[in-house]
Amino acid sequence: MQMLDKLAAITGAAHVLTGDDVVKYSADWTDNYHWSPLAVVRPHSTEEVSAILNLANETNTPVVPVAGNTGLNGGTSADGALMLSLERMNSIREIRPDARIAVVEAGVVLSQLHDAAEEHDLIFPLYFGARGSAMIGGVLSTNAGGSNVLRYGSTRHLCLGVEVVLADGRVMNLMSELHKDNSGFDLKDLMIGAEGTLGIITGAVMKLMPKPITYATAMVAAPDLEASLVLLNRLQSATGGMVEAFEFMPRIYMDTLKAMFPETREPFDDKYEVNILVEIATTQPGMATPGENGEVPLTRALEDTLSELSQDGLAIDAVIAQNEGQRREMWDRRERAGEVLLSTKPLVNHDVSVPVDKVATFLQRMTQKLAEIDVSAQQCTVSHLGDGNIHYAVWPSTENKDTHFAITEAVDDVALDLGGSFSAEHGIGLSKLDSMARRKDQIALQMMHAVKLAFDPKGLLNPGKVLPPL
Ligand SMILES: Cc1cc2nc3c(=O)[nH]c(=O)nc-3n(C[C@H](O)[C@H](O)[C@H](O)COP(=O)(O)OP(=O)(O)OC[C@H]3O[C@@H](n4cnc5c(N)ncnc54)[C@H](O)[C@@H]3O)c2cc1C
User: Fold this and answer.
1) Ligand 1 pocket member 84 (CB < 6 A)
2) Residue 281: what pLDDT?
3) Ligand 1 within 6 A of 337 CB?
4) Calpha distance 19→365 (Å, rounded)
5) CA atoms within 13 A of residue 363's CA, in its CB half-sphere
6) Which is the closest atom of ligand 1 to the Cα of 72?
7) How far, in Å, from the CA of 371 to the mean position of ligand 1?
């Protein structure tokens, strides 16, 4: 039997796609990567995934897993490979509110889990613009971050267990529901962030958190990034760590957003360089219930901190959302960043992290370096400022690849010099292989290759991703 017939025997012919049916799987969200897969197979169960990988192993067929295909680094690029889509494995097996866990299949869409958790007055606290498409298998495999990392951690911190199908089809059951489990090497954590190079995640146990009763959300204009850090730290102290999100949008972003979406309202009457979206939230009724004067204590805490900062000259303008509509408007501005950055080409994009008190220094140094490399280039740095993650995007004045390379070199240099990383939350995929080769500790790279060999001796799982050749 031919390969496709054998696949059809596993999943049914309707779930082995070829020709025009694979077009939507043949490019990434950024449109930077295009490929022609051998076929796309859409299994419905762990057993089917196991049979497919067993077949791929016997026939030496490379396999690239795909979940929501919203990754930003070419991780699902699959020229000539079999793409294994998790989209039909989309059931929430169980939610146990008392244990604060959800047991899910890898194809559950992030927003599907959000809705399911809310039915139990709980949240799954991983939020970002692509939540309507990204799936649990994808967010685990990239260890996605998003806007709420400073309060809840990244996907790794929200996962208790995983089920993984290995390259030869064996199923590794690590579906722990435990908060403490020191039974040998932590293979779960090895699978998280591995981008499908070590195994295919088919199920997971995810943590749920209490649902905030009230949010207080504001746009704040600060004189500079150092002042914003004071705002963040004072708010954390004033509220006992209730800051959920702290996002930075520079002037150039606001202007480009407005040009692209003219209906977007500016947050302030005046225009500022440093625009911060800050959100705090509480699960405590005492902080959420209006007092006799009608004030909500949580909102009061935000107002008081802002007013203190204003007196100290550390906040120059602020507007607090008065209802859910205004809060949504603030978030919409921020969550359009992906579309806005991609609107202008060429784009040299980076996803670096530095210690939170080094963000301003990073940007100062990069402004200087960028001017030396390409005096007409523009930088647009929408950032998860609260956790030090800078999406440092550059619109160079030229298509010249050497210039683009020099910009990335400079970004990596400055980030690493400040104790940062060239890869914060989007993973490596194809786009950061150069940085991985040049910047990652060489011994660490050798050990990663050894791990890859142990899990995938034939190199069939998502080949060419994450690990540059030694
Ligand atoms: C508008 C927009 C906003 C975004 N904002 C953020 C953000 O704020 N923070 C952030 O971290 N990311 C962000 N991203 C990036 C992206 O959404 C995340 O990387 C997300 O985790 C990818 O999930 P996915 O389901 O689309 O995975 P895919 O893109 O399908 O896959 C990602 C990688 O994981 C592998 N993979 C997929 N499923 C499995 C599996 N079951 N087992 C093993 N490997 C698998 C794939 O081969 C690929 O290498 C954003 C993307 C967009 C388009």
Assistant:
1) no
2) 97
3) no
4) 49
5) 24
6) 15
7) 33
DSSP per-residue string spanning 21-72: GGGGGSB-TTSS-B---SEEE--SSHHHHHHHHHHHHHHT--EEEESS---S
One domain, residues 103 and 184:
yes
The range of the structural domain enclosing residue 375 comes to 344-426
Q: Which of 184, 210, 236 is the last residue of a domain?
A: 210
Domain harbouring 398, CATH code = 3.30.70.2740
Put simply, whether the predicted model's pTM sits higher than 0.85 gets the answer: yes
Which among 147, 115, 120 is positioned nearest to 132, based on CA atoms? 115
pLDDT digits (tens, 9 = 90+) for 139-160: 999 999 999 999 999 999 999 9
Identity of the residue numbered 445: L
pLDDT in the model for residue 371? 98
* 101 and 203 fall within a common domain: yes
Residue 1 confidence class, pLDDT cut points 50, 70, 90: low
How far is 167 from 246, CA to CA, in rounded Å?
A: 40
Pocket flag, ligand 1, residue 110 (CB < 6 Å):
no
- Give the span between the Cα atoms of 372 and 297, in whole angstroms: 49
Q: Which residue bears the tokens 């290759």? A: 449
- Report DSSP letters for 359-385, one per residue: HHHHHHHHHHHHHHH-TT-EEE--EEG
For tokens 């435990």, name the residue: 178
Provide the pLDDT for residue 84: 99
Which ligand 1 atom lies nearest to the CA of residue 30?
A: 53
Q: Are residues 368 and 329 in the same domain?
A: no
When pLDDT is averaged across residues 414-441 and rounded to a whole number, the result is: 97
Edge-to-edge strand order for the sheet containing 63-66? 16-17, 39-41, 82-85, 63-66
Q: How much is the average pLDDT of 370-374? A: 98
Asked whether residue 277 carries a pLDDT value surpassing 90, the answer given is yes
